[in-house]
Design brief:
This protein is mainly beta and 207 residues long. Helix content is 14%, strand content 36%. The chain folds into 2 domains: 2-92, no CATH class; 104-196, no CATH class.
Length: 207
Amino acid sequence: MIVTYTEEINGINFTFSADEALRPFAEPLLEAIEYIPAEKIKDGFRIRAGFSTFMLSEHGIGFDIAAPDYTDDPLTALTTDLTLALHVQYRQVLLLHKYGIVGKAIHFYDKIAVAKGALEKELVSMQRFAELGGSGWSVETFMLDEDGTARPVEAEDYEAVYAYELISRRPELIDALCLPDGYIAVYRGKELIELLDDNNESVMNAD
């Protein structure tokens, strides 16, 4: 259920909406607002927190908190319903906590190198490279031989995709985008079937 919240921080009211189950994931954002000097709190002030960049919009005697609208064009459109923005953070944090990994930030406007057609394939691997530029992520597809050995499919061309585009094009991949350099995530359809660290060792099957 979507609920509208108004929180008083340092004597100023801040209002946003979110699914009540995701309300706890707004706490880091509210704590960040608490430490912003009062003279900087103004209409249009932006706060980068996790995957999203939030913006304060003056409303009456307080401010609305808005997030990029991932159902529209998040580079230009905003929404005061933070549900989707908080849901992305929830899924990314859940993956990191599950495997005890210290993540690396990625922002919704960062670019990802995607082999043409890979997002439509069932078998997908994604690896983060420190030297690649942009987000560092490269998304490829692969095939399984009869003995189950994975064989990469050589890509002839790549496209640059904004990280937020995965929300609509291949949403399950969003979870892994907060992994650090050197990590590899392997998906079969919507399922994460393998996760390798920067030493090429399985994180999912670790003792």
